[in-house]
Amino acid sequence: MSDFYDISVTLADGTTTTMGGWAGHVLLIANPASTSAHANTLAELFTDYAPRGFFAFGALSTHDANDAGGADTTFPHLTHAEELFEYLGEGDTFVVDTNGSVIGWFDATVEPDELEVTDLIESNLPI
């Protein structure tokens, strides 16, 4: 299996890159189903924690990707992230530490701003 930071993803603006661009940051990654349900919360978390080394990512569904112009752009959106979600495994929302290790898996019933998620984020922020 590839290293987390070597995984290729495509952003909503069409840019293809790797997760290496976010090495050294704590990441919260939400799959398509949870992205739409939690978009406002992801945007708030990104705004609150970004200055301390945090990024939130939402993966757009195929339908949403075709209409990416209407997507919330306060945090990055992924349109082609199949390899990423294959790497991450089962779950709806994932927390990845500054070394690229998955340290939290949450299902869609857990809001991204619940204490168990935010405590995990805060305890791993680099700043």
Overview features:
alpha/beta, seven-stranded mixed beta sheet, 31% helix, 127 residues, 7 strands, single chain, 24% strand
Word description of this protein:
- It contains four helices and seven strands; from the N terminus they run E-E-E-H-E-H-E-H-E-E-H.
- Strands 2-1-5-4-3-6-7 form a seven-stranded mixed beta sheet.
- It is an alpha/beta fold.
- Strand 3 (26-30), helix 1 (32-49) and strand 4 (54-59) form a beta-alpha-beta unit.
Order of helices and strands: EEEHEHEHEEH
Q: Say how many strands there are.
A: 7
- The helix content, as a percent range, equals 25-40%
Strand pairing plus helix content: what structural class?
alpha/beta
State the end-to-end CA separation: 30 Å
Q: What fraction of residues sit in β-strands? A: 15-25%
What is the rounded Rg? 13 Å
